[in-house]
Amino acid sequence: MSKITEWDTHRAITELRTVRDMARWCFSRMNESDVYFGHGTDNAWDESLQLVMNTLSLPWHSYDNFADAVLTTTERQTIVYNLKSRLIDRTPLPYIFNQAWFCDLPFYVDERVLIPRSPIGELIKNHFSPWLASEPTKILDMCTGSGCIGIAAAYAFESSEVDLVDLSEEALVVAQQNVDDHQLTERVFPIASDLFSGIPEGMKYDLILANPPYVDQMDFDAMPEEFEHEPEMALISGNDGMDAPREILKQAINYLSDDGLLVMEVGYSAHNLEAAFPNIDFNWIEFENGGEGVFIMTYQELLENQDQL
Q1: Got the DSSP string for 230-279?
Q2: pLDDT tens digits for 115-143?
Q3: pTM for this one?
Q4: Which of 13, 131, 287, 309 has the most CB atoms lying inside 10 A of its own CB?
Q5: How many Cα atoms sit within 13 Å of 99 on the Cβ side?
């Protein structure tokens, strides 16, 4: 639990003066709390720095330039308000500021969508080398949420068209906002669909990127409070977390081109996927920048494993 009190916050507002003062104070309060780090940062100092600098509408990496700048009373009050939201309500920072970064791109986020954090971003930056035989012209981002994966792929492959698919109409509103913000309305298209059900028959994609819900009920019940702010339907997928991944694996071959790739994330539920398909040899990707539970399957591999799906 957070140890922050009204007396603490009153003294911070009246006695602290500079950006450095507020960053140090937030750091101390973070260290005293039991907050979970994992929605953009992984430690109390980076979390504190981002909270302070985002409140001031300054890039967090410019801290050294502004550390000794004197804050107004309103600025100090707003920092304190945001810190209380983080510590007491356990609201992740990207929801407080309605912004998250993915593949070095900014995205609008709120509690209608998951906070972007997929290691698929590393694959996008590397243009899926060495797995892609040629530049994809048609890409599908399945279970798109904010649209961050599909939009990042559209930047990586400038001649491609990208469909952003999600069951949640609310998520698609957010995805459309991000498409508009990135001025990609002529190439990126949100589609309401329960997995593949709303995609026209005969549509073929060179690259299917899937980050479906994959958390089982037991793991969900044990997750830190921060995850309660995220949409449950984007996290849980049946008792073993594999309802959506199973269906994507079964149907993907019908929507892939002959040289196409399926890239799917199942995170720490990888063992559940292997248990569900014990006779399939999944190609799990090793990431330089952290992350786990992402595999790649070619059209040919899906074809060869159809009797196992």
Answers
A1: S-GGGTB-STTS-HHHHHHHHHGGGGEEEEEEEEEE-GGGHHHHHHHSTT
A2: 999 999 999 999 999 999 899 999 999 99
A3: 0.94
A4: 13
A5: 11
